[in-house]
Amino acid sequence: MPSAHEIDYEIYGEEMQFVEIELDPRETVVAEAGSFMMMDDGIEMATIFGDGSTSGGSGLFGKLLGGAQRLITGESLFMTAYTHGGNGKAKVSFAAPYPGKIIALDLEKYGGKIVCQKDAFLCAAKGVSVGVEFSRKLGRGLFGGEGFIMQKLEGDGMAFCHAGGHVVEKVLTPGETLRVDTGCLVAYSKGVQYDIEMVPGIRNKFFGGEGFFFARLRGPGRVWIQTLPFARLASRVLQNARSTTGKGKGEGSVLGQLGNLMDGDGF
């Protein structure tokens, strides 16, 4: 028998998406702080400790354990639960934090578990456990791009993650291997083996611009890949901000500096 609340949803938008969750009476969805967008009358908000699931036990120790796991992943100790307390149906919406795509994950279809990057989780049906996936391998923890800790989503309900740019879903057959930039890995399903692999060749390592390591994923299972990791986006923004010295013309190019001179701003 399903333990998570059964929710209906629809995803809107292209580059800046939001997910609209439709709740029946007494149904609940839990979300990260700061992701809320709008809700219908009749929905009640409540700040809860942890994720609201009973995966660690329903007592005080279980709640403390769940909260501590969230703290380790860099998230808040608290989440917000949205419960439909009225009659009929009501809707609540959650927005993506930066340009990209929202991924809808039916955990029951993926063996009850998805492992994702630490900041990917957006919201989920109440009953889904948001925990910690520790890396057992030193190399993967040091050079895998996500460190020793990733998030794991467990249960039989719907969960929603967010990734930057466009998202590609790859289905890996048993033994099939996929090499991915460590920052582009968003999530993978139960059964996928995740490790790292060194980029071959001295010139590739130092001048290829792709770092020293790939993420190596071996099937069977599903893998979700993003085209624009947030760290890459932030790096480009900071790089261009420094090169333009606050003038914002021509991306810091020679033509941009000439434009500054013609405008009377000087070099």
**CATH class term:** Alpha Beta
Number of helices: 5
- The CATH superfamily is Mitochondrial biogenesis AIM24
Catalogue the unreliable spans.
138-147, 248-267
Secondary-structure element sequence?
EEEEEHEEEEEEHEEEEEEHEEHH
Extended strand count:
19
Structural class: alpha+beta
Shape: globular
Reported for the largest beta sheet, the result is:
6 strands, antiparallel
Summarize the structure in words.
It is a single chain. With 267 residues, the chain is of the alpha+beta class. Helices cover 18% and strands 40% of the residues. The protein has one domain (8-234): Mitochondrial biogenesis AIM24 (Double-stranded beta-helix). It contains five helices and 19 strands. The strands form four sheets. It has a six-stranded antiparallel β-sheet with strand order 5-6-3-10-13-8. A six-stranded antiparallel β-sheet has the order 11-12-9-16-19-14, covered by helices on one side. Strand 1 (8-12) and strand 2 (18-23) form a beta hairpin. The model is unreliable at 138-147 and 248-267 (pLDDT under 50).
